Amino acid sequence: MEGGNHSVVTEFVFLGATNSWNIQLLLFVFSSMFYVASMAGNSLIVFTVASDPHLHSPMYFLLANLSFIDLGVSSVTCPKMIYDLFRRHKVISFTCCITQMFFIHVIGGVEVVLLIAMAYDRYVAICKPLHYLTIMSPRMCIFFLVVAWVVGLMHSGVQLAFVVNLPFCGPNVLDSFYCDLPRFIKLACIDTNQLQLMVSANSGFISVGSFVILIISYVVIVVTVQKHSSGSSSKALSTLSAHITVVVLFFGPLIFVYTCPSPSIHLDKFLALFDAVHTPFLNPVIYTFRNQEMKVAMRRVCRQLLRYKTIS
Fold first, then answer.
1. pLDDT per residue over 164-176, tens digit each?
2. Rounded to whole angstroms, how far apart are CA atoms 97 and 100?
Protein backbone atom coordinates (compact mmCIF):
# COMPACT_ATOMS: atom_id res chain seq x y z
CA MET A 1 0.00 0.00 0.00
CA GLU A 2 2.93 2.34 -0.56
CA GLY A 3 2.59 5.53 -2.53
CA GLY A 4 -0.17 7.19 -0.51
CA ASN A 5 1.61 10.54 -0.77
CA HIS A 6 1.47 10.42 -4.59
CA SER A 7 -2.31 10.95 -4.75
CA VAL A 8 -3.30 13.79 -7.04
CA VAL A 9 -7.06 13.44 -6.51
CA THR A 10 -8.34 15.93 -3.93
CA GLU A 11 -12.05 15.45 -4.53
CA PHE A 12 -14.49 12.91 -5.91
CA VAL A 13 -17.45 13.46 -8.21
CA PHE A 14 -20.78 11.71 -7.58
CA LEU A 15 -22.95 10.70 -10.51
CA GLY A 16 -25.89 10.76 -8.11
CA ALA A 17 -28.91 8.52 -7.75
CA THR A 18 -30.38 9.31 -11.18
CA ASN A 19 -30.04 11.63 -14.17
CA SER A 20 -33.77 12.15 -14.65
CA TRP A 21 -34.98 15.57 -13.47
CA ASN A 22 -38.49 14.25 -12.68
CA ILE A 23 -37.11 11.39 -10.59
CA GLN A 24 -34.73 13.79 -8.85
CA LEU A 25 -37.68 15.98 -7.91
CA LEU A 26 -39.56 13.00 -6.52
CA LEU A 27 -36.46 11.88 -4.63
CA PHE A 28 -36.08 15.35 -3.17
CA VAL A 29 -39.67 15.44 -1.91
CA PHE A 30 -39.78 11.91 -0.52
CA SER A 31 -36.22 11.89 0.83
CA SER A 32 -36.78 15.19 2.63
CA MET A 33 -40.04 13.93 4.12
CA PHE A 34 -38.53 10.64 5.27
CA TYR A 35 -35.42 12.37 6.63
CA VAL A 36 -37.41 14.86 8.71
CA ALA A 37 -39.80 12.11 9.86
CA SER A 38 -36.97 9.74 10.84
CA MET A 39 -35.12 12.48 12.73
CA ALA A 40 -38.31 13.50 14.55
CA GLY A 41 -39.42 9.90 15.26
CA ASN A 42 -36.08 8.68 16.55
CA SER A 43 -35.54 11.84 18.60
CA LEU A 44 -38.99 11.36 20.14
CA ILE A 45 -38.16 7.77 21.08
CA VAL A 46 -34.88 8.80 22.73
CA PHE A 47 -36.57 11.66 24.61
CA THR A 48 -39.53 9.50 25.66
CA VAL A 49 -37.38 6.67 27.02
CA ALA A 50 -35.11 9.14 28.85
CA SER A 51 -37.94 11.12 30.43
CA ASP A 52 -40.56 8.46 31.22
CA PRO A 53 -39.76 6.35 34.34
CA HIS A 54 -42.08 3.58 33.11
CA LEU A 55 -39.66 2.92 30.24
CA HIS A 56 -36.50 2.66 32.32
CA SER A 57 -35.95 -1.00 31.48
CA PRO A 58 -33.27 -2.90 29.51
CA MET A 59 -35.45 -3.32 26.41
CA TYR A 60 -36.20 0.39 26.11
CA PHE A 61 -32.62 1.36 27.01
CA LEU A 62 -31.41 -0.64 24.01
CA LEU A 63 -34.23 0.72 21.83
CA ALA A 64 -33.30 4.31 22.71
CA ASN A 65 -29.68 3.64 21.77
CA LEU A 66 -30.78 2.06 18.48
CA SER A 67 -32.84 5.18 17.74
CA PHE A 68 -29.84 7.35 18.59
CA ILE A 69 -27.75 5.37 16.10
CA ASP A 70 -30.52 5.72 13.49
CA LEU A 71 -30.18 9.49 13.85
CA GLY A 72 -26.60 9.02 12.71
CA VAL A 73 -27.63 6.71 9.87
CA SER A 74 -29.89 9.44 8.51
CA SER A 75 -27.41 12.26 9.00
CA VAL A 76 -24.30 10.69 7.46
CA THR A 77 -25.59 10.45 3.88
CA CYS A 78 -29.07 11.99 3.54
CA PRO A 79 -28.40 15.75 3.92
CA LYS A 80 -25.67 15.80 1.26
CA MET A 81 -27.67 13.54 -1.05
CA ILE A 82 -30.69 15.87 -0.80
CA TYR A 83 -28.45 18.91 -1.30
CA ASP A 84 -26.75 17.34 -4.34
CA LEU A 85 -30.02 16.55 -6.09
CA PHE A 86 -30.11 20.12 -7.44
CA ARG A 87 -26.40 20.46 -8.12
CA ARG A 88 -24.98 19.80 -11.55
CA HIS A 89 -21.47 19.21 -10.15
CA LYS A 90 -21.77 16.86 -7.18
CA VAL A 91 -18.41 16.76 -5.43
CA ILE A 92 -16.99 15.73 -2.09
CA SER A 93 -13.46 16.33 -0.82
CA PHE A 94 -11.08 13.44 -0.18
CA THR A 95 -11.14 14.10 3.58
CA CYS A 96 -14.93 14.32 3.74
CA CYS A 97 -15.21 11.09 1.72
CA ILE A 98 -12.95 9.25 4.17
CA THR A 99 -14.88 10.75 7.10
CA GLN A 100 -18.22 9.68 5.63
CA MET A 101 -17.03 6.10 5.15
CA PHE A 102 -15.61 6.06 8.68
CA PHE A 103 -18.92 7.02 10.28
CA ILE A 104 -20.96 4.75 8.00
CA HIS A 105 -19.01 1.71 9.19
CA VAL A 106 -18.85 2.82 12.82
CA ILE A 107 -22.61 3.25 12.89
CA GLY A 108 -23.11 -0.04 11.04
CA GLY A 109 -20.94 -1.94 13.53
CA VAL A 110 -22.70 -0.38 16.52
CA GLU A 111 -26.14 -1.17 15.12
CA VAL A 112 -25.21 -4.81 14.48
CA VAL A 113 -24.21 -5.33 18.12
CA LEU A 114 -27.28 -3.46 19.40
CA LEU A 115 -29.58 -5.67 17.34
CA ILE A 116 -27.86 -8.77 18.75
CA ALA A 117 -28.20 -7.33 22.27
CA MET A 118 -31.91 -6.68 21.69
CA ALA A 119 -32.36 -10.26 20.47
CA TYR A 120 -30.59 -11.51 23.61
CA ASP A 121 -32.84 -9.30 25.73
CA ARG A 122 -35.94 -10.91 24.17
CA TYR A 123 -34.41 -14.37 24.61
CA VAL A 124 -33.89 -13.79 28.34
CA ALA A 125 -37.34 -12.20 28.75
CA ILE A 126 -39.07 -15.19 27.13
CA CYS A 127 -36.86 -18.14 27.99
CA LYS A 128 -35.70 -17.06 31.48
CA PRO A 129 -38.34 -14.61 32.72
CA LEU A 130 -37.67 -15.21 36.44
CA HIS A 131 -34.01 -14.25 36.02
CA TYR A 132 -34.60 -11.38 33.58
CA LEU A 133 -33.80 -8.45 35.89
CA THR A 134 -30.77 -10.27 37.28
CA ILE A 135 -29.29 -11.13 33.87
CA MET A 136 -30.26 -7.89 32.10
CA SER A 137 -28.92 -5.67 34.87
CA PRO A 138 -27.89 -2.03 34.29
CA ARG A 139 -24.27 -3.20 34.24
CA MET A 140 -25.07 -5.69 31.46
CA CYS A 141 -26.82 -2.99 29.44
CA ILE A 142 -23.82 -0.66 29.75
CA PHE A 143 -21.56 -3.59 28.82
CA PHE A 144 -23.54 -4.17 25.61
CA LEU A 145 -23.35 -0.46 24.76
CA VAL A 146 -19.58 -0.29 25.31
CA VAL A 147 -19.01 -3.45 23.26
CA ALA A 148 -21.17 -2.01 20.46
CA TRP A 149 -19.05 1.14 20.18
CA VAL A 150 -15.76 -0.75 20.49
CA VAL A 151 -16.79 -3.16 17.72
CA GLY A 152 -18.00 -0.29 15.52
CA LEU A 153 -14.79 1.72 15.95
CA MET A 154 -12.57 -1.32 15.39
CA HIS A 155 -14.55 -2.49 12.36
CA SER A 156 -14.31 0.92 10.71
CA GLY A 157 -10.78 1.74 11.81
CA VAL A 158 -9.25 -1.55 10.61
CA GLN A 159 -10.72 -1.17 7.12
CA LEU A 160 -9.86 2.51 6.68
CA ALA A 161 -6.31 1.94 7.94
CA PHE A 162 -5.68 0.05 4.67
CA VAL A 163 -7.60 2.52 2.52
CA VAL A 164 -6.66 6.01 3.70
CA ASN A 165 -3.15 5.93 2.14
CA LEU A 166 -4.13 4.49 -1.24
CA PRO A 167 -2.83 6.54 -4.21
CA PHE A 168 -5.51 8.15 -6.41
CA CYS A 169 -4.44 9.68 -9.71
CA GLY A 170 -7.75 9.56 -11.60
CA PRO A 171 -10.45 8.95 -12.58
CA ASN A 172 -12.30 10.38 -9.57
CA VAL A 173 -15.93 9.60 -10.47
CA LEU A 174 -18.10 7.55 -8.09
CA ASP A 175 -21.29 6.15 -9.59
CA SER A 176 -23.17 6.70 -6.35
CA PHE A 177 -24.52 9.46 -4.11
CA TYR A 178 -22.23 8.75 -1.16
CA CYS A 179 -18.76 7.34 -0.50
CA ASP A 180 -18.69 3.58 -0.07
CA LEU A 181 -15.63 1.38 0.29
CA PRO A 182 -16.13 -1.02 -2.67
CA ARG A 183 -16.44 1.76 -5.28
CA PHE A 184 -13.86 3.98 -3.57
CA ILE A 185 -11.16 1.28 -3.60
CA LYS A 186 -11.66 0.55 -7.30
CA LEU A 187 -10.51 4.10 -8.16
CA ALA A 188 -7.03 3.60 -6.69
CA CYS A 189 -4.02 3.63 -9.02
CA ILE A 190 -2.72 0.27 -7.83
CA ASP A 191 -4.00 -3.29 -7.87
CA THR A 192 -6.55 -3.52 -5.04
CA ASN A 193 -8.07 -6.94 -5.67
CA GLN A 194 -6.81 -8.32 -2.35
CA LEU A 195 -7.99 -5.23 -0.51
CA GLN A 196 -11.43 -5.43 -2.11
CA LEU A 197 -11.62 -9.08 -1.07
CA MET A 198 -10.65 -8.15 2.49
CA VAL A 199 -13.30 -5.41 2.71
CA SER A 200 -16.01 -7.65 1.26
CA ALA A 201 -15.02 -10.51 3.56
CA ASN A 202 -14.91 -8.24 6.61
CA SER A 203 -18.26 -6.51 6.13
CA GLY A 204 -19.85 -9.55 4.48
CA PHE A 205 -18.80 -11.91 7.27
CA ILE A 206 -20.08 -9.55 9.95
CA SER A 207 -23.39 -9.03 8.12
CA VAL A 208 -24.08 -12.67 7.26
CA GLY A 209 -22.73 -14.02 10.56
CA SER A 210 -24.77 -11.61 12.67
CA PHE A 211 -27.90 -12.24 10.58
CA VAL A 212 -27.55 -16.02 11.04
CA ILE A 213 -27.03 -15.61 14.81
CA LEU A 214 -30.14 -13.44 15.07
CA ILE A 215 -32.31 -15.81 13.03
CA ILE A 216 -31.18 -18.79 15.15
CA SER A 217 -31.98 -16.87 18.36
CA TYR A 218 -35.46 -16.00 17.06
CA VAL A 219 -36.11 -19.65 16.15
CA VAL A 220 -35.09 -20.68 19.69
CA ILE A 221 -37.43 -18.06 21.15
CA VAL A 222 -40.39 -19.16 19.02
CA VAL A 223 -39.84 -22.83 19.89
CA THR A 224 -39.60 -21.97 23.60
CA VAL A 225 -42.84 -19.98 23.50
CA GLN A 226 -44.67 -22.84 21.81
CA LYS A 227 -43.53 -25.20 24.58
CA HIS A 228 -44.24 -22.85 27.49
CA SER A 229 -47.07 -20.52 26.63
CA SER A 230 -47.75 -17.89 29.28
CA GLY A 231 -49.00 -14.34 29.61
CA SER A 232 -45.54 -12.86 30.14
CA SER A 233 -44.11 -14.84 27.24
CA SER A 234 -46.93 -13.69 24.96
CA LYS A 235 -46.25 -10.07 25.88
CA ALA A 236 -42.53 -10.48 25.20
CA LEU A 237 -43.27 -12.32 21.95
CA SER A 238 -45.46 -9.46 20.75
CA THR A 239 -42.32 -7.33 20.34
CA LEU A 240 -40.45 -10.10 18.54
CA SER A 241 -42.10 -9.58 15.15
CA ALA A 242 -40.97 -5.94 15.23
CA HIS A 243 -37.40 -7.04 15.95
CA ILE A 244 -37.43 -9.55 13.10
CA THR A 245 -38.77 -6.94 10.67
CA VAL A 246 -36.08 -4.43 11.62
CA VAL A 247 -33.35 -7.07 11.33
CA VAL A 248 -34.44 -8.08 7.83
CA LEU A 249 -34.68 -4.45 6.70
CA PHE A 250 -31.23 -3.67 8.10
CA PHE A 251 -29.28 -6.75 7.00
CA GLY A 252 -30.95 -7.32 3.63
CA PRO A 253 -29.24 -4.46 1.75
CA LEU A 254 -25.92 -4.99 3.60
CA ILE A 255 -25.69 -8.67 2.71
CA PHE A 256 -26.51 -7.94 -0.92
CA VAL A 257 -23.95 -5.11 -1.29
CA TYR A 258 -21.04 -6.92 0.37
CA THR A 259 -21.62 -10.48 -0.81
CA CYS A 260 -22.90 -10.03 -4.37
CA PRO A 261 -19.82 -10.05 -6.66
CA SER A 262 -21.23 -7.77 -9.39
CA PRO A 263 -24.46 -6.09 -8.32
CA SER A 264 -26.62 -4.15 -10.73
CA ILE A 265 -25.91 -0.42 -10.48
CA HIS A 266 -29.62 0.46 -10.36
CA LEU A 267 -30.43 -2.19 -7.75
CA ASP A 268 -27.35 -1.20 -5.74
CA LYS A 269 -28.46 2.45 -5.69
CA PHE A 270 -32.02 1.51 -4.78
CA LEU A 271 -30.87 -0.57 -1.82
CA ALA A 272 -28.49 2.19 -0.73
CA LEU A 273 -31.35 4.71 -0.86
CA PHE A 274 -33.61 2.36 1.06
CA ASP A 275 -30.95 1.74 3.71
CA ALA A 276 -30.06 5.42 4.12
CA VAL A 277 -33.51 7.02 3.88
CA HIS A 278 -36.28 4.54 4.61
CA THR A 279 -34.81 2.17 7.20
CA PRO A 280 -34.13 4.88 9.86
CA PHE A 281 -37.73 6.04 9.34
CA LEU A 282 -39.25 2.55 9.45
CA ASN A 283 -37.49 1.54 12.68
CA PRO A 284 -39.36 4.01 14.94
CA VAL A 285 -42.61 3.34 13.06
CA ILE A 286 -42.29 -0.43 13.51
CA TYR A 287 -41.32 -0.26 17.17
CA THR A 288 -43.95 2.31 18.17
CA PHE A 289 -46.92 1.01 16.18
CA ARG A 290 -46.38 -2.54 17.47
CA ASN A 291 -45.75 -1.46 21.07
CA GLN A 292 -48.73 -0.21 23.09
CA GLU A 293 -46.57 0.78 26.06
CA MET A 294 -44.40 3.02 23.89
CA LYS A 295 -47.43 4.67 22.26
CA VAL A 296 -48.96 5.43 25.68
CA ALA A 297 -45.65 6.85 26.92
CA MET A 298 -45.29 9.05 23.84
CA ARG A 299 -48.78 10.45 24.28
CA ARG A 300 -48.02 11.10 27.95
CA VAL A 301 -44.79 12.93 27.10
CA CYS A 302 -46.48 14.97 24.37
CA ARG A 303 -49.24 16.02 26.79
CA GLN A 304 -46.63 17.09 29.34
CA LEU A 305 -44.78 19.12 26.74
CA LEU A 306 -47.99 20.83 25.60
CA ARG A 307 -48.97 21.54 29.21
CA TYR A 308 -45.52 23.00 29.91
CA LYS A 309 -45.71 25.13 26.75
CA THR A 310 -49.18 26.43 27.72
CA ILE A 311 -48.00 27.36 31.23
CA SER A 312 -44.95 29.13 29.83
1. 888 888 788 888 8
2. 5
